[in-house]
Specification:
The chain is α+β, with helices and mostly antiparallel strands. It contains 5 helices and 5 strands; from the N terminus they run βαβαβαββαα.
Length: about 130
């Protein structure tokens, strides 16, 4: 599967707050938090699903992968989504190892797997 997704009993705001703490411990910062529902409603659309997209980055890791291959920038920053799915809060992300495979650079695979494990750990701690 191209993604990692889990369920939590927390509200979306609680899940995001917990996620931000665990990301910070791994030196990942939230660069941007995009509230899809609010933005689409602002544009006059009747979108009711609470759906947030967090763009997260560890600057040292970004520098490492970009130094090896500029195409990796197409996948940066990493995205983590937190959303309501019929009353259940879900947290998920596309797997960096799956994304990096499209670049066809085996040297980057290990880095992507390491980042993926750390991000999954952050997600798991926040549930």
């Amino acid at each position: 599967m191209f993604h990692y997704t889990v369920e939590t009993n927390k509200s979306i705001d609680e899940a995001i707050s917990s996620l931000e703490e665990s990301l910070s411990a791994e030196k990942f910062g939230v660069l941007w938090s995009f509230n899809v529902k609010d933005k689409l409603q602002e544009k006059g659309l009747d979108f009711q699903q609470d759906y947030r997209i967090l763009e997260v980055c560890n600057p040292h890791e970004a520098e490492r992968v970009l130094s090896q291959n500029n195409l990796v920038g197409y996948f940066l920053p990493c995205k983590i989504v937190v959303y309501d799915d019929h009353g259940t809060t879900k947290i998920g992300m596309p797997k960096p190892s799956e994304l990096i495979s499209m670049v066809e650079d085996e040297g980057l695979k290990e880095l992507a797997v390491d980042i993926e494990k750390r991000l999954i750990g952050c997600i798991d701690k926040s549930i």
